[in-house]
Write a structure and sequence with these properties.
This protein has 17 helices and 14 strands. It is α/β, with parallel strands linked by helices. Helix 8 (about 285-300) packs antiparallel against helix 9 (about 305-315). The protein is globular, with a radius of gyration of 33 Å. Keywords: Membrane, Transmembrane, Transmembrane helix.
Amino acid sequence: MKKNNTELKQGNSFQFFIKNENGTILMSFIFFLPIFIGLIFLSFEISCFIQKKAKLSDAMEQATLALTVENNNIPSSEQEVKNNILISSFAHAYLPEETFSEPVITINSSASHIDYHADITMSYPAKFLNKAFNLISISDIKLDESAIAKKNTSITAIPTDVVFVTDYSGSMNRDFDGTDIDSTDISKVRIVALRRILKNLHNEIQQNENINLVGFVPFTWGTKRTIDNNNTTPTLLCHFPFVPKKHSPDGNYLTKYNISGLKELPGMDKIVSLNMINDINYGKLSDKEYISISEEITDKANYTDREKALRYLSRIYYVKLENVISPVIEENIDYEKTIKSINGSDHTIDIPLSDVRVNDFCLRTSMAHTFDSNNMDDSQFSKILNSRANGGTLISSGILSGNNLFKETNNNNRKIMVILSDGDDNDNTHAGDNRINKDAPYLNITKKLIDNGMCERIKDNDIRMVFIAIGYTPDENIDWKKCVGEGNFYLASNAQELELDINRALATEDTEVGRNTPKN
């Protein structure tokens, strides 16, 4: 009897639960919950698919454009292998974790153009669906992608002179994402990729009678010039291709800041500690001497004399720091005359490299220096190319040095300046000693030159400038697209894009290297 009562109660409870609206909703929710979860994971999988397809499409478009650069006609068997590697490298660069099939490349040649067609298949695990339906094994997702590029062949090549203006700052030792990497990933380093590309390109240029490499300008915060001294040790100069307000034949723009110069300033005859110190070697003022002199100047000199003297003393003492040297250089630039010199000639700021005590300037710790057509020796070029990248960035110092190299050529060839940089200028330095004037304006040397017409003046010399940003997006402070022209600005996010961009910049035909066409 008790059992029957229990069953009756359970039956009544179930009927009550079903009749209750809340129970009905809960049962429906429990029933449809797996379906909802499956749909959510499916939407994630579809989103992932769309993203991967877009990346693969971009990779294939860039890869087929690269084919137009690497191939001038139907390829040999050796070139076919290189083409396959090229397509695969672009795919892996955009989607490094995925698996790809062997690419299929078709090249068709006609009288007026060459078509490059490439196909590839990517496979990747269905991560989200496998999580949603972990009891069911779902095979990898396969994605086919193709691209077509066309290159016109009926236009005659034009003789071209080329100057490479190349960033050799310390950040070039990072990978294309801007992070420091260990030696096991050396192939991903910006400077390593650039060296490889330029070496290969130099070999190709030697076989191409239509392209002449007339200069190579590595730069940091300034460039380096070498002057031969008749079989003796060459003179090394920290070179800034800017016209000085007052030219110094000896280049004593930095060494003029010494104790003797300080003694000549107004009001310094009262400073006893100065009279007790004989002139010391450049950059060798001790901490004790600096403190003693600065305290006495503060106590005894009037306000006007004090500020000028302390600033001068600070430069004597802190000459080893970037934020002292760079303002000294900037203060000596005559911007108006510098702009005029682009189409003419004038003095420049040249400082003995031994006077520069900061490694960030003028490739001080590197064997690299400006390389022109007068010393275009293969072994020397290779040595410079392999030199250490270290220092800051002042792009205009490289650009104007490159412009000056073109002045040494005397022909009607087309002229191309390829500017390669991986970062904005080091302008986070005040145009005055931070310790004396913290509110001084920033330097912005390159911006001032551009605002005063540097780019237009260079173009007036019939020089086509190409700017390739390596692994970064330039700050809006400077509009490089406007400077070089919309079609001459490139962003290279990996080594493959960098190589493609450089080759596109050097196209010796009066047309594009190639262009993508719609797929059938």
